[in-house]
Amino acid sequence: MSKRKRQLESALKPQQQKAAQLYVQNEWNELTGEGEKKLTMAELAAEIGIARSTLFEWKANEDFNAYVAYLSDVQMRGMHDEFNRSVIKAMRGGNNGLGSVKAMELFAKLHGLVKNEHVIDDRREGKPSYKSEDDLRNDISVLDAMINGE
Length: 150
Description:
The protein is mostly helical. It has 8 helices and no strands.
């Protein structure tokens, strides 16, 4: 078990940990199409053995939300292989037989083959001039006078 997970779990009661785990599992089941239909908050609360209002109170708790976010991130990292397969499938033609240029670009960026690098070539003669503090104060005074109608 990771140090982060232990730290997050230590801030919650076992029943809250179970609630967070079931909540995340419920959300991911809907996204991935795995498991049964998505449970309502009332059904989730009943499965955990708490009142629906208690579940809503826990969802407003910062520690509970941090643990939910951690569990969700773990699930997301588990999708890495599926993501790679989807990109490769799209590059090779996907469902329509035509390779996706966007998938190829994403692959190239992820593997450092393409870099988003912009170079600005300053061709002005000489170096940029900078105003002194006195000149800036004077300019501000002039602008103030213009704004105030003086």
